[in-house]
C-alpha cells in the first residue's frame, strides 16, 4: 500500500485493490447499445477519410457484437468495450458498493477508435447508498461553457471541488484517451494532513455522469454516429477504516466482498467508526499521522 501499514505509530490503512473486481453485477449503465435489437454505428476509417459501419447487439451479452457495461472490467478480453446507444445524453455509469470505502484512484479509458472522447463529465460520490450524490470533480474541454459557475482553480479547502480542463484531442478525436481522478492529488494544495484528505475520499457508491458527447468530423455521405464508448474502468480503493486498521476481513464467510475492518487502537464497528465497549474514556476520533487516537479504557 502507498500508505502507512504500521498501526502502532498512528494512522494505518489497508492495501488497495480494484473494487470493481467481483462486483460486475453492481455496475450499471443508463444506456447500452443493442439491448432491444441490433443497432448500426458508423465511425471513421482509414485516417478519417472513409467510414465503416458495424452492428451492436447486446441481447446475448456473450456475443462478439455485444457491448455491455461489464466489458469495462480489467479482466475482460482486450477487444471488448461498453458502448452507449446513439445520441443519448446524458449517460451515467453507477457502481453501488453497499458499504463505506475509501477511493484512491479512478481510471477511465475511453475507446476513442469507436467514439470520440466525451466533451464533459462529472464524477460523483454518495455516502448514503445513492439517496443523494455530491460532485467530486467536473471535467470538460470548455469548463465555463459546460459548467458555468464551477471554479476552475485547484481546491484550497477540502469542501471545495472544481472543473479540470481536459487537454485538447488535437486533429484526431479518435484516439484512446485515459482520464484519472485521485482525491489525494486533487487536494494536493490543501494545507491538511493526508489522514484528513483520506476522510473526504469515503464513498458507498460512485457515479460517472457523461454530460456532453464529443464532436465528430463531417464526412461525405452518411453521418457519423455520436455515442460513448469505454474500454476499461478501474476503481482503486480499500475498505474505509478511518486510519484504525491495516487490513480488511470478509464480514461473512460465504461473501468475501462484504468486508469489515480488522480494527486496532481499541476501536470497533465495520469501519472502526466507534470505540470498543469499555474503551470510552476519550471520544472516538479518526487516526492521524503520528497519533493513533487510541480509545482509552475508563
Note down, in words, how this protein is organized.
The longest helix has 6 residues, at 194-199. It contains three helices and 16 strands. By secondary structure, the chain is mainly β. The protein has a single domain (18-239), classed as Galactose-binding domain-like (Jelly Rolls, Sandwich), CATH 2.60.120.260. The two termini are 34 Å apart.
Concise synopsis of the structure shown:
The protein has helices spanning 143-146, 183-186, 194-199, and strands spanning 17-18, 27-29, 39-45, 50-56, 82-83, 91-110, 120-126, 134-140, 163-165, 177-181, 202-212, 229-239, 248-252, 255-261, 267-268, 274-275. The protein has 298 residues and is mainly beta. The protein has one domain (18-239): Jelly Rolls.
**In the CATH hierarchy, what is the superfamily?**
Galactose-binding domain-like
Radius of gyration: 22 Å
pLDDT < 50 runs, ≥5 residues: none
> Any guess at the CATH architecture?
Sandwich
The span between the termini is 34 Å
CATH topology heading: Jelly Rolls
Largest beta sheet, briefly? 10 strands, mixed
Strand portion: 25-35%
User: Which quaternary structure do these chains form?
Assistant: single chain
| Secondary structure tally: strands | 16
Instruction: Work out the helicity level.
Output: under 10%
3D shape: elongated
Describe the SSE topology.
Elements: E1 17-18, E2 27-29, E3 39-45, E4 50-56, E5 82-83, E6 91-110, E7 120-126, E8 134-140, H1 143-146, E9 163-165, E10 177-181, H2 183-186, H3 194-199, E11 202-212, E12 229-239, E13 248-252, E14 255-261, E15 267-268, E16 274-275
Parallel strand pairs: 8-9
Antiparallel strand pairs: 1-12, 2-6, 3-4, 5-12, 6-10, 6-11, 6-12, 7-8, 7-11, 13-14, 15-16
Amino acid at each position: 500500500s502507498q500508505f502507512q501499514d504500521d498501526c502502532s505509530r498512528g494512522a494505518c490503512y489497508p492495501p488497495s485493490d480494484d473494487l470493481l473486481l467481483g462486483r460486475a453485477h453492481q455496475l450499471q449503465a443508463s444506456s447500452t447499445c443493442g439491448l432491444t435489437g441490433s443497432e448500426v454505428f458508423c465511425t471513421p476509417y482509414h485516417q478519417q477519410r472513409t467510414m465503416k459501419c458495424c452492428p451492436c447487439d447486446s441481447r446475448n451479452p456473450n456475443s462478439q457484437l455485444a457491448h455491455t457495461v461489464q466489458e469495462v472490467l480489467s479482466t475482460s478480453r482486450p477487444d471488448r468495450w461498453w458502448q452507449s446507444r446513439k445520441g443519448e445524453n446524458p449517460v451515467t455509469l453507477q457502481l453501488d458498493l453497499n458499504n463505506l470505502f475509501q477511493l484512491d484512484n479512478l481510471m477511465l479509458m475511453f475507446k476513442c477508435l469507436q467514439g470520440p472522447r466525451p466533451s464533459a463529465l462529472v464524477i460523483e460520490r454518495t455516502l448514503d447508498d445513492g439517496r443523494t450524490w455530491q460532485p467530486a470533480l467536473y471535467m470538460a474541454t470548455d469548463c465555463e461553457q459546460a459548467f458555468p459557475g464551477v471554479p476552475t482553480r485547484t481546491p484550497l479547502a477540502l469542501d471545495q471541488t472544481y472543473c479540470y480542463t481536459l487537454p485538447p484531442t488535437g486533429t484526431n478525436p479518435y484516439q484512446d484517451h485515459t482520464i484519472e481522478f485521485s482525491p489525494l492529488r486533487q487536494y494536493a494544495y490543501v494545507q491538511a494532513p493526508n489522514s484528513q484528505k483520506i476522510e473526504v475520499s469515503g464513498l458507498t457508491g460512485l457515479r460517472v455522469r457523461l454530460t456532453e458527447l464529443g464532436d465528430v468530423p463531417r464526412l461525405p455521405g452518411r453521418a457519423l454516429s455520436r455515442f460513448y464508448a469505454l474500454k476499461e474502468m478501474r476503481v482503486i480503493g480499500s475498505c474505509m477504516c478511518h486510519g484504525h486498521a491495516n487490513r480488511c476481513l470478509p464480514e461473512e464467510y460465504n461473501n468475501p466482498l462484504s468486508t469489515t475492518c480488522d480494527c486496532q487502537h481499541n476501536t470497533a464497528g465495520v469501519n472502526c467508526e466507534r470505540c470498543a465497549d469499555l474503551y470510552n474514556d476519550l471520544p472516538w476520533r479518526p487516526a492521524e499521522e503520528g497519533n493513533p487516537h487510541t480509545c482509552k479504557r475508563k
